[in-house]
Amino acid sequence: MASVLFTDALLFDGESAEPQEGVQVLVEGERIKEVSDRPIQAADARVVSLGGRTLMPGLIDAHYHAIAVDPNIAKLRDMPRSLLYQHARRFLEASLQRGFTTIRDAGGADYGLAMAVESGVIKGPRLFYSGKALTQTGGHADFRTLEEDAFCLCCRGGTGFERIADGVPEVRRAARDELRKGATQIKIMASGGIASPTDPVWNLQYSEEEIRAVVWEAESWRTYVMAHAYTPEAISRCVQFGVRSIEHANLIDAETAAICARHGAYVVPTLATYQALDKFGGKLGFPEISLKKLQDVRDAGIKALEILKAAGVTIGFGTDLLGEMHAEQLTEFAIRSEVQSPHEILRSATATNAELLNRTGELGCVTPGALADLIVVDGNPLEDLSPLSGDGEGVPLVMKGGEIFKNRL
Predict the structure, then answer these.
(1) How far apart are CA 51 and CA 11, in angstroms?
(2) Do 63 and 23 share a structural domain?
(3) Are 73 and 151 within one domain?
(4) Full residue range of the structural domain in which residue 150 is found
(5) Would the pLDDT of 157 be above 50?
(6) Residue 358 falls within a domain, yes or no?
């Protein structure tokens, strides 16, 4: 069993606001064996001296789209699956090199990608996948053109990103099928959105009965539902109907944030994608109608973060990037720093997201028995987040499951 001993580390364990100096961490196999502020005896271990750099849990991105390889998602239906998954592989492997050892895919990734990562064919992050996102006819993930027949069953396979289901029997069947295929949570579209062509942002989607049916199916598998929702009404009804994780929430108000806090819901803002779309979307083929809708939510993101923080809502960390904009993944840290402290942001990307994934004690922490998903960061990110920027240049070492995938020390 291979062992690695990290020495002279400044430790951020995923929880504490103050780092611990001079720490040693012993990894045996895929798990952390020992954490100590005294020398650890491990004669056979490979010693990696960190020279005072920060050792911390691997980052978790809780809103990722591995197969969103083009900003115009409607184009995915015409892309050969073999080509699409080669792009997905490239995005996943680049994310691991930036320090993201786990991602929660919010629609499109499947058991094949997860198996490829688990087997090592793709050297990417751990993959918690939702399968196909559930959308109603005309909903946020219905990318059909106006000319397409509403009753054409061949359209229901769509882009590979979504699954159109209407009415309680259909949504139950769809949720059960995605769970059958190994989905670790179910994603629904509960309001209009930016990338979809026909639905305004304020549009409410799925009835109470439909949402409660999906929630019941997920809970029967001891998991949960995550919901795309922007407006206060869309958010509040989801939370009150049992949805656990709200995605985006740019237009949330204080009253709705209080509802989220009261119900113990998680909210996962995805601010990086709005900045990236505003900066690069037009050049990369993001549809003009979607660029116009972008303005409705882009500037509201920071205010929403302020409202969520003031209400004491549990805030996760996600990015929601599309196509080549996946390279902007680490910009989420700098954007959030306008509102949150470095500790709050780092905790959201580690321990909080691990809670959201139901993996507390296994991911997002540096404790004995946890999976050895660890990264090394130049300097002290609890004081200065700038090393977590760019394309991961400030992250010289990445370990996932006890295996080193990047080492520039």
Answers:
(1) 12
(2) no
(3) yes
(4) 59-329
(5) no
(6) no
3-state secondary structure the chain: CCEEEEEEEEECCCCCCCCEEEEEEEEECCEEEEEECCCCCCCCCEEEECCCCEEEECEEEEEECCCCCCCCHHHHHHCCHHHHHHHHHHHHHHHHHHCEEEEEECCCCCHHHHHHHHHCCCCCCEEEECCCEEECCCCCCCCCCCCCCCCCHHHHHCCCCEEECCHHHHHHHHHHHHHHCCCCCEEEECECCCCCCCCCCCCECCCHHHHHHHHHHHHHCCCCEEEEECCHHHHHHHHHCCCCEEEECCCCCHHHHHHHHHHCCEEECCHHHHHHHHHHHCCCCCCHHHHHHHHHHHCCHHHHHHHHHHHCCEECCCCCCCHHHHHHCCHHHHHHCCCCCHHHHHHHHHHHHHHHCCCECCECCCCCCCECCEEEECCCCCCCCCCCCCCCCCCCEEEECCEEEEECC
What CATH number does residue 43 fall under? 2.30.40.10
Taking only the tens place, the pLDDT of each residue in 95-140 is: 999 999 999 999 999 999 999 999 999 999 999 999 999 999 988 8
Give the span between the Cα atoms of 201 and 183, in whole angstroms: 27
Residue 352 lies in a domain: no
Query: What pLDDT sits at residue 16?
Result: 95
The amino acid sitting at 330 is L
Does 318 lie in the same domain as 264? Answer: yes
Q: Is the same domain home to 94 and 72?
A: yes
- CATH code for the domain of 115: 3.20.20.140
Q: Rounded to the nearest 5°, which phi and psi values hold at 315?
A: -105, 120
CA 94 to mean position of chain CA atoms? 15
Q: What is the mean pLDDT of residues 144-164?
A: 65
Give the per-residue SS3 of 318-363: CCCCCHHHHHHCCHHHHHHCCCCCHHHHHHHHHHHHHHHCCCECCE
Whether the CB-CB separation of 143 and 158 falls below 8 Å is answered with: yes
| 207 shares a domain with 143 | yes
Number of structural domains, the chain? 2
pLDDT at 1: 63
Tokens of 137: 């006819």
Is 336 inside any structural domain? no
Total Cβ atoms within 10 A of residue 379: 16
